[in-house]
Each structure stands twice: as C-alpha cells, then as structure tokens.
Amino acid sequence: MQTLPFTLRIPIEESLRFARLSGDYNPLHLNAEMARRMRFGTTVVHGMHTCLAVLEQWLANNPQPIALSSIQVQFFRPVPSGASMVVNLDEATDHRLRWTLRAEGRKSGRMQVSWVDRPSQEDDSRIAAPEAPFPDICQVRTLEQVRDLSGQSRAVLDRHLLAALFPALERGLHAQALAVLLAATRLIGMECPGRDALFAGFSIRFDHAWPGDSALRYRIIQVDERIDRVVVALSGSGAEGELEAFFCPPPVRQSGMEEIHDQLRGRSWGAMRALIVGGSRGLGELTAKLIAAGGGEVAISHCLGYRDARRVQEEIRAWGGSCTLFAHDVLNPDAGDPFPMADSATHLFYFASPRIQLDPWGGWKPELFQTYCRYYVTGFLETVKRMARTGPHPTPLKIFYPSTLFLDRPEAGAAEYAAAKAAGEAVCHHLKHQYPYMTCDAARLDRTLTDQTASMPHLTTDPLRLMMERMQRLTD
C-alpha cells in the first residue's frame, strides 16, 4: 500500500477522455472558451475524475481485487486543469482509507473509502455497456426548475475506455461501483442540475449482493436557496446515497444595443475610433456597444473568446453600428492580427485580465502577483508599444486603463491584484513621457457585475452607468 504523498495532474486532454467514459461533457471541464465566462474563469478537473485517479494510484499497488462498501467525498474547491494536486493518506485501518487533497496551496478535497476483498474470478459481465456514445448536450436549469426534479438513469460501463484510462481500476475494482460513480458525475454535470452545477460531494453505499439491475433512480430531496445548494438522492443498481451540488451563476449578459441607445439620451461619440482590448465580454463588451450606439467605430480583440467577440460584433452590426474584430494575445502581442485603424484611432481601451482570485485566508502569493503583472503591466505596455510601432499617429490617443478601488479601500485577499494594478497605473503615468501624443486615464473602478464578479453578493454599481460616466470624461 502506498502511504507516501503522491502528486496528480489531470490536463484537459485527459478530462476529455474521462468525459467519453463517463458522459459528463459539462463545458466547465472541457471548453476553455465557455469556461472563461463561468465562475472560475478556466476549465477545472472533474471531481469524480480526481477520485478515480486516487483509487487508480492506490489499486496499482494493491493486487487484491476489491468491492467498495462505501465512499464519502467532499470537494472544497475546484482544481484548474493541469494543476498539481498533492494526495496525502491520512488514515489506513483495516479495509478503510482516508485521503486529503491539496491544490494551489489549499485543501481541495477529502475522500474516504471502505471495501471488502472479492475473489479475482468474480464475474463482472452483468454490467451493461452504453448502447451508444453519450450525448454531449447538458441541461440548463434554474434552482427553481430542479426543486421537484426526479428521473432515472442507467449505470453502464465501457470496459475498453475504462481500461485505457484506469487500467488498475479495470482489473481490481468491482465494475458495479465504477458504473454507479460514473453515472453520478454524468447526472450532476449533464442532467440534474446540469450545466451550471458544481459537484460539492457525495456519499454512496454499495450492496455486495447486487442483483444485476442497471436502473438508477434520482430525485431532489433538499434545496437551500440561501447558498444555491441542492441534494440529490440516488438509489438502484445495488447502490444508494446522496449527491451534493451548488449552482454557479451563469455568464453575465450585458445590456443590449437598444437599451444602451435609449440610455444615451442623445449623447454622440461619432468622432470616436476605438480599439478595445478584451471587448468580447464584461466591461469591454459594454464599452464597445456604448461607442457603437453613439455613432463611433469600434474594433474589439479576441484571444480565447472568438465566439463571444463574434456575438458582440453581430449584435452591433445588426443594430446598424460599426465593429471589426482582430486577434490579439496580450501575453504574445506580436503574434496576432495587425491592429485595425491603428494610425487613426482616437482611443484605446484595455480590459484584458486573467481570472481574478481573491483569497482572504491565504498569504501573499508571488506566482499570482506575477500572473497579474503579465496582464496588467507587461501585456498592457507591450500592447501600447505595438500600437506605437504602426507608424506616425497624427491625432492624440486617449487610453483607458481600468484600475481598482482596492487601492483606496484595501480588501483582504486582494493584495496581489491591487499591487499589480498599482504597477499598471505607474506605467500609465510614464507613457506620456515616451509618447507625448498619448494620455492615459487610470480610473479606479468599483466592483460591478461581470463574469468575474457574478458570484459576489451585494454588487450595487450599475456597469452601464459606470461606463457612460467614464466615456463622458474621456470625451470632454
């Protein structure tokens, strides 16, 4: 038995293999473009994949085939795809083990299993295989829509996919338990609740006298609206237990063109020719719509979010506005498209940002600070330099750089973010010395509703009103 800590890394390529095995194609785990607009800003590992990877590591060093009696798991925080997880064995007694998992310096999960030994020749052939590949479309439901939800699934198992991904589990773990565990992640991620679910934990008990039935029934038994939590009861296929999940806020929809035009009340920005870096969502999307609704021309960049940028462009053009797209990665600025209207632009708006992580319980994180600086300092400066290299700029260029009120009102857990923004402000102040035709507005903005802040309570600042006020200052 392996007692020393060991490390796991599950890249997104392995998550795709797990999705084929389990049927859990939730975009939170697989689609980087969609996941960037969800709560964690990036793809995260399937919780059940992590559990089975831990069992795989254990059974690779345990030649005796087993049948699970029970498994209890709590997921404390999601793990980004490819992040390093350290697994510690906390308890090892007769036929019971307990592990703790840590990732990014924090406890990410805890799991406990109990089991019985089983004869190596025991027949697992009664476990049915999927009749067809699992569909990859997941349900989108609200908390109210799942309140009385119930239904039935099947505990099935593709032994070839299992052997390729988890060879030790295929050899040593009773297939009944594996089929139920895979059905559990498929249920939470695809059906109940579905796309906006975050698996929080489960407790499942197994009947060793399983009769061979593959039907798996489920029903919602608890809904807690205060914390957007649901509990699902699971029974059948020789198992019973409870699954726990939280609802994540869906991607934030910014105001549409008609609403923005109505709010402008005659304001005109017809003379503006603006490049918007990070214009495919959030405040960048809103700024692009504001300028277009006021008669100006906009060009918005995309990196991971081409489909979102295309959606914004189509909405602006359908309304009658002017919008072009260009590829631009602030971490590799010379690899993208040429900047549209670079020699005639009147404004540059810089909204590029990584996932913002506020951790009030952790200490200073040098790696996180460096990540912020790559976007808010180096990426910003290199973007401005690239624009300056396009040639003579006959008109003044006004730059909008969104900073943060955390510099005036410090908040626990925001030190790395605020420090990087302060460095970005310093860059803004020095730009006019190197490029006299540039001026930079480093506005310290309050938090407002975007994808990055959707899970934060009590956001009262209206993003449309906020950006209208900033635009007015920029054009005065």
Distance between the amino and carboxyl termini:
71 Å
Beta strand count: 16
* Overall helicity: 25-40%
Helix and strand content put the structural class at alpha/beta
CATH fold node name of the largest domain:
Thiol Ester Dehydrase, Chain A
Number of continuous helical runs: 13
Which homologous superfamily in CATH is the superfamily of the largest domain?
Hotdog Thioesterase
Which secondary structure elements does this structure contain, and how are they paired or packed?
Layout: E1 6-9, H1 12-22, H2 27-30, H3 32-35, H4 47-59, E2 66-75, E3 84-93, E4 96-103, E5 106-117, E6 150-154, H5 159-165, H6 167-172, H7 175-191, E7 197-206, E8 215-224, E9 229-236, E10 239-247, H8 257-264, E11 273-277, H9 282-293, E12 297-302, H10 306-319, E13 322-327, E14 347-350, H11 366-388, E15 397-404, H12 415-434, E16 438-445, H13 463-475
Parallel strand pairs: 11-12, 11-14, 12-13, 14-15, 15-16
Antiparallel strand pairs: 1-3, 2-5, 2-7, 3-4, 4-5, 6-8, 7-10, 8-9, 9-10
Keyword list:
about 475 residues, about 30% helix, 10-stranded antiparallel sheet, Rossmann fold, 6-stranded parallel sheet, Thiol Ester Dehydrase, Chain A, single chain, alpha/beta
